[in-house]
Amino acid sequence: MTDHTTRRRRTTLTPAQWIGRAVVALVLAVFTAFFILPIVWLILAPTKTNNELLLNGPFSVGSLDQLAANWNELFAFGDGVFATWLGNSAFYSFAALAITLLVSIPAGYALALIEFKGRRLLLITTLIVMLIPNTALVLPIFLELSAAKLIGSPLAVILPFSFFPFGVYLTYIYFSTAVSRDLLNAARIDGAGELRVFGQVAMPLATPVIALVGFFSFVGNWNNYFLPFLVVGGQKIPVQVGLSNLLANVPAFNPTTATSIVIQLPTLALATLLSVAPILIIFLFAQRFLVEGMTAGGTKE
Amino acid sequence: MTVTSPPAPAGVVPTGRRRPAGRRATRVNAGQSRYGYLFVSGYTLLLIAFGLLPTLYAVYLAFTRNGAFVGVDNFVRVFNDYRFLPAVAHVALYVLFWLVSLIVFVVILAIVVHGIRVRWLGNSARFLFYIPGAIAGASSVLLWLFVLDPTVSPVSGLLHAMGYESLVNVVAVGNLPVVFTVIAFWAGAGGWIVIMYGALNNISTDVMEAARIDGASHVQTAWHIQLPMLAKWISYMGIMSLAAGTQLFVEPKILAQATKNVVPEDYSLNQLAYLYAFRQNDFSGSAAISITLLVVALGLSTVFIFRGKLFERD
């Protein structure tokens, strides 16, 4: 409110201020276009035929009928293998999500609120591993799994996906700032055991951090390409890996493609859109929650 | 990716502000500590199985050949591979471009968006910048294949004006560092902008108000007050992005596939490690490259945790 009144009072702008504002507006416009136009294009492309895509304006709208035709072409490809890929992605991501929550939430809770030997060591290790890009461990994990003869098993994807030190760290931060020890001690004095303290006092308070950890775990695993690309094949690949297989059947990119079944560009665009649709939808619905979660602490002081 | 990467979800970090949690309880309670172990047991197992063991196994592979200890032979062999140095150069150039563009544009955009007084406008801008973060991995590369292909691109006019007639022209090897920078920036910058924005909110309004009354322009306030306040976040972003950037894999991999190896399949270090394992069946060589990359990442993250002030340890 105060911002508005002070702005209204200074109605006359110097030329320098005008130029400043124009530059700011231009910068914002250019970057907004950069970030958003590719997504708009991706949403429109599957409504067109291949020729419309090549000849019409990039932001022209096709028709719903054509969208349905492209949809049918995509799901007919390889006896509906695209649906299998989507199902695999969902299976891997949800299974890993469940394990991640099951192990990370208690671990973060214990690191924050229970004293035990080795706590600091575990905490520092978690921090160090958390800051390593997750791709750095992919080849070593592949080598390990192939020594353990687990390559090709869904577990080879799910178990490494479940290891999520960032989630433990988030939970640790949450419990050490948002839940007081005194509250837990009061419950202990009332005779509650440790499991009840965790289950009935701490857990009900933990909903926001469970959602946040769940979100980051799901998004990270759904979008992961490198690990599943190495450890599973055939019918077991998730959609991210499937997409690149699809690419091999697009004549526009591979003129010498050997297969007789081809994928047209609008169908490939539809596949790309569907491969990110679950994540895009979560982003759209959870935006306020996420932005608040990401800046938690930063905005409160 | 990388970005994105990701992985840990690229670029998302809570602030280090917190009360030291463990200080007050001085005596370790035996009953409690048993439950402490129980609560961390599952996570610790995963940490050992997918953090510690693979690292140790890769170290073992990197220093042996067919089970016999060979010292640094594997490292010497891969470093002398004619593909190794070009891959280092490719990755280094890409990381340089990416870091510079991240630092310059993320900081400018965060400050500009933070300066927007109209609330819904600022919020929408942040959200719109952040949304591409939803599209990572192979999907973002595929989307950019379309954007960079002059025949279908939403910016085909721009590409034609720059003299490009086909995808293969656009992704010529010399252009790749820029191409990968654009893709990584598109997907990853928004998350960092949101984080920087949060950090800017930490600057007390009194300080900003005082500067305005003293007649400081927006540029002066940004340069003398906001930028120093962001310094530790910028260094954090830089180090994380440097570590992630060295891991470049999915972008050149898919571009190689889409262009029938106009983009070479040994462009980046991780691709080379992949070729060693899958094409040459040489796990020792692959492990040597992986360990080299892992040491870089571990070094960066360890130095940052012990020297940086972002994660004060308790």
Automatic annotation (TrEMBL), chain A:
<dbReference type="InterPro" id="IPR000515">
    <property type="entry name" value="MetI-like"/>
</dbReference>
<feature type="transmembrane region" description="Helical">
    <location>
        <begin position="261"/>
        <end position="286"/>
    </location>
</feature>
<feature type="transmembrane region" description="Helical">
    <location>
        <begin position="155"/>
        <end position="175"/>
    </location>
</feature>
<feature type="transmembrane region" description="Helical">
    <location>
        <begin position="195"/>
        <end position="219"/>
    </location>
</feature>
<keyword id="KW-1003">Cell membrane</keyword>
<feature type="transmembrane region" description="Helical">
    <location>
        <begin position="90"/>
        <end position="114"/>
    </location>
</feature>
<feature type="transmembrane region" description="Helical">
    <location>
        <begin position="21"/>
        <end position="44"/>
    </location>
</feature>
<keyword id="KW-0813">Transport</keyword>
<keyword id="KW-0812">Transmembrane</keyword>
<feature type="domain" description="ABC transmembrane type-1">
    <location>
        <begin position="86"/>
        <end position="286"/>
    </location>
</feature>
<feature type="transmembrane region" description="Helical">
    <location>
        <begin position="121"/>
        <end position="143"/>
    </location>
</feature>
<dbReference type="GO" id="GO:0005886">
    <property type="term" value="C:plasma membrane"/>
</dbReference>
<dbReference type="Pfam" id="PF00528">
    <property type="entry name" value="BPD_transp_1"/>
</dbReference>
<protein>
    <submittedName>
        <fullName>Carbohydrate ABC transporter permease</fullName>
    </submittedName>
</protein>
<comment type="similarity">
    <text>Belongs to the binding-protein-dependent transport system permease family.</text>
</comment>
<keyword id="KW-1133">Transmembrane helix</keyword>
<keyword id="KW-0472">Membrane</keyword>
<dbReference type="InterPro" id="IPR035906">
    <property type="entry name" value="MetI-like_sf"/>
</dbReference>
<dbReference type="GO" id="GO:0055085">
    <property type="term" value="P:transmembrane transport"/>
</dbReference>
TrEMBL record, chain B:
<keyword id="KW-0472">Membrane</keyword>
<protein>
    <submittedName>
        <fullName>Sugar ABC transporter permease</fullName>
    </submittedName>
</protein>
<feature type="transmembrane region" description="Helical">
    <location>
        <begin position="283"/>
        <end position="306"/>
    </location>
</feature>
<dbReference type="GO" id="GO:0005886">
    <property type="term" value="C:plasma membrane"/>
</dbReference>
<keyword id="KW-0813">Transport</keyword>
<dbReference type="Pfam" id="PF00528">
    <property type="entry name" value="BPD_transp_1"/>
</dbReference>
<feature type="domain" description="ABC transmembrane type-1">
    <location>
        <begin position="88"/>
        <end position="304"/>
    </location>
</feature>
<comment type="similarity">
    <text>Belongs to the binding-protein-dependent transport system permease family.</text>
</comment>
<feature type="transmembrane region" description="Helical">
    <location>
        <begin position="91"/>
        <end position="115"/>
    </location>
</feature>
<feature type="transmembrane region" description="Helical">
    <location>
        <begin position="37"/>
        <end position="63"/>
    </location>
</feature>
<keyword id="KW-1133">Transmembrane helix</keyword>
<dbReference type="InterPro" id="IPR035906">
    <property type="entry name" value="MetI-like_sf"/>
</dbReference>
<feature type="transmembrane region" description="Helical">
    <location>
        <begin position="127"/>
        <end position="147"/>
    </location>
</feature>
<keyword id="KW-1003">Cell membrane</keyword>
<dbReference type="InterPro" id="IPR051393">
    <property type="entry name" value="ABC_transporter_permease"/>
</dbReference>
<dbReference type="GO" id="GO:0055085">
    <property type="term" value="P:transmembrane transport"/>
</dbReference>
<keyword id="KW-0812">Transmembrane</keyword>
<feature type="region of interest" description="Disordered">
    <location>
        <begin position="1"/>
        <end position="23"/>
    </location>
</feature>
<feature type="transmembrane region" description="Helical">
    <location>
        <begin position="167"/>
        <end position="200"/>
    </location>
</feature>
<dbReference type="InterPro" id="IPR000515">
    <property type="entry name" value="MetI-like"/>
</dbReference>
